[in-house]
Write the structure tokens for this entry.
Amino acid sequence: MRLEQKWQALARETNGIVHTREAYLEVTKGLFEIEHGKILKHLEQYRLQLPSHYSDKLVCLMDIENCGLPYSSPINTVSIGSINGEFKVKTFFALDYSGEREILKRAWKIMRRADKVFSYNGKAFDMPRLLSRIKTHGLLVNGQSPIEKSLGGRHCDLYPIFKEMTREKGITLLDRKLQTLEQVLFNTFRGNEIHGADIPKAYHDFVYTSNEESISRMATIVNHNTLDVASLGACLEFLRQQGKEVLKDPINEGGITLLDRKLKTLEQVLFPILYTPDK
């Protein structure tokens, strides 16, 4: 099987589009194109409603798959879920090791525009690895990585929030896997999954062989990453339904209420020393 035939075979299994020049696959799925059991039903019911102060903003959900635990291990898949009037997931997959830089650049282009970025166990796993690989590929801004410079407090890891919430209900999360949380919250189980420890070898086999089994296994991993992001959306909705506000208004979060929409009112709140009342 020729290289482009292999890539097209993967595209058919994932409903994706191959970009041969940059050696990456892009898969875009909307809410009703994602098959995820009770997770999807949860998303359909609540439609990811955003609070009014986020109605015109972009909220992103992020998850990666890589080739091992070390920070230096290449990233092969990044999925970004976007909530901005509708719910969509874009999954970027490096068709070989040379495609990693391009998928990082594409994913970061979306993330840097986001007003809030959510992950699950991202503080310990996804973000450090993403940061390391971005540095490796020289995607820097003024000597700093884009994540260090631009995300700042806009990243929120949902794992500590759910760990505390389940602990209060007398439930112990046995690990940091999103599938474990799915079982607790939505009583749903995924089938046909590939264990995380097997992903590096599955990716290596896909890159260096062209048999149908390696293509099928890689398609399973790409789809798994897409489902992780859809699941993050359901978890975000679950928090909203439980009254746990994770999309706080930056002004109201500080206990301040803007009495009107005048710029002078905001000036008085932000710069009280410089504020001079009108005579």
User: Anything to note?
Assistant: The chain has a mean pLDDT of 82. The chain has ten helices and seven strands.
